[in-house]
Amino acid sequence: MKDLFDLSGKTIIVTGSSRGIGKATAEQLAYRGANVCVSSRNLEPCQEVASSIQAQGGRAIAVRASISRPEDLAMLVAKTREAYGPVHGIVCNAATNPHYGSIDTLDDETHLKIYRNNVLSNVQLAKLVKDDMQQLRGGSIVIISSIAGFKGSSTIGAYGISKAADVQLARNLAVEWGPANIRVNCIAPGLVETRMAAALLADEALMRFTRESLPLRRLGQPEDIAGVAAFLMSDAASFVTGQTLIADGGALVV
Ligand SMILES: NC(=O)c1ccc[n+]([C@@H]2O[C@H](COP(=O)([O-])OP(=O)(O)OC[C@H]3O[C@@H](n4cnc5c(N)ncnc54)[C@H](OP(=O)(O)O)[C@@H]3O)[C@@H](O)[C@H]2O)c1
Q: What's the average model confidence in pLDDT over 12-17?
């Protein structure tokens, strides 16, 4: 018998893992045996997450890196490699949503920043680890998209465009890198209770819909997404590529 969900010895970088979905994901990957690199723009909270993982018997390092700086991404990969060897997986989790409101009031610079952080940085990070994955004869890339990429929105439109682009990016990379056994998938979470969702959590009509109409009748928690990421990283998902797994409490089916 074999544990298809085992991640022992696999080196995985999780961007934006000082809190929220990224933190829960880093913890779950470490719990399943992975060597994890915890990363965000601020070192101290990442060190706290890495220390907590280590204290529970897991393997983790902390690296400060902003996804908006290509040189930071290069350093993130180099430091991870230095600690644990070639990178088997990345969870492109960090993202930006700096504008809440109509697209009429969104300036071009902010729009480009959303694209750069939520789409281009994922391409840059993926390219940086491609050689490692080829050397390992396989790898897994998971991009955290959003159900905002599946619906129109009058408040988070550009963010939704970027998250829809991530879904297509996963398809494209899956086609291009599949022959090297590099799998590329997205997760599209629904509303998850984190700091990033603060503006949505303050929307009373949306909260009423969540409590009364969402099939599972609750908001998502970071762990709801972490388990899906661990699945996509593992051999249990070895024939899954180019897909987007929706984890939204049923929001898209009502
Ligand atoms: N929460 C939701 O309802 C929801 C729904 C669908 C999809 N998502 C997606 O889930 C992912 C995680 O979001 P979350 O809700 O967990 O947010 P969160 O709790 O606010 O955490 C965001 C993480 O990203 C880091 N970060 C932010 N900007 C960064 C940058 N430029 N470079 C590197 N790290 C950066 C933050 O740390 P620092 O501030 O220290 O950098 C933090 O660790 C995002 O891709 C988001 O779009 C969230």
A: 99
